[in-house]
Specification:
alpha/beta; three-stranded mixed β-sheet; about 30% helix
């Protein structure tokens, strides 16, 4: 069954979310948002989903502030973070490129990323672009650190990294990524060439499973209608909804 690259990423993320009690999704996150909704559909409603800036896909009464309260109470099981730069220790940079504060390029800012990174147990890093510009040896500015000293209370942290080329899991003890699977049509050599940090891998690395037909049917049907609420252009372009 034919599928789009976006649908492959959605189904890849969905497998990482199985068994999560409540998934929260930030702004400008149509692919993670679609994966969260697909996870909820597959759980028969056992998984809750909150998508910020959505009229119908959230139950917050006090906006984003309540999201942080829920995270602090242990009521958010999974969240997504990205960054203009991500390094091999799972540090993310949402501030800009160059020496702070006189940076050559300035981005929107860290917002509450550090707090959620510390509190949410399953944080999935997601960035479609996988180049040495985005996957760097060391970020120029740490918006949220991937690891903390042992004495620091930190129930949350990085679980996996999903990019347009492959899937990595994060080893907290080693503070390194491990390449888990390579997306169809790509290769280990391509990932090595386009990654600025070192990572672990062993033997013959599996190919990321392609989307299951039943999940594609859900995506192109009820999920497409739901994700069109916060992301109408995405739904129209990917699902023709």
């Amino acid at each position: 069954m034919e599928y789009l690259p976006e649908e492959l990423l959605i189904c890849t993320i969905t497998r990482l979310l199985e068994g999560t009690g409540h998934i929260a999704v930030g702004v400008s996150s149509p692919i993670p948002g679609s994966a969260a909704l697909l996870t909820r559909a597959l759980s028969n409603g056992k998984t809750g989903v909150t998508v910020l800036n959505s009229a119908n896909l959230q139950t917050l009464n006090d906006g984003a502030g309540e999201l942080f309260d829920r995270a602090a109470q242990g009521r958010i099981g999974a969240f997504f973070l990205s960054g203009g730069q991500i390094d091999g220790q799972a540090n993310i940079n949402l501030v800009g490129v160059g020496q702070y504060p006189q940076q050559d390029v300035r981005w929107s800012g860290s917002f509450g990323s550090a707090m959620l990174y510390y509190l949410v147990p399953r944080v999935i890093l997601f960035r479609e672009e996988h180049t040495r510009r985005t996957m760097v040896d060391q970020v120029d500015f740490i918006s949220a650190p991937g690891t903390s000293p042992p004495e620091v209370y930190r129930p949350g942290g990085p679980y996996a990294l999903v990019t347009g080329l492959g899937l990595f899991h994060f080893d907290k003890l080693r503070a390194r990524f491990r390449l888990t699977s390579i997306h169809p049509g790509h290769s280990l050599e391509e990932i090595l060439d386009n990654t600025g940090f070192g990572f672990d891998y062993e033997g013959e690395i599996p190919i990321t499973p392609t989307p299951e037909p039943d999940r594609l049917s859900l995506l192109r049907g009820p999920i497409a209608a739901e994700i069109a609420d916060p992301y109408p252009k995405f739904a129209a372009a990917i699902f023709k909804s």
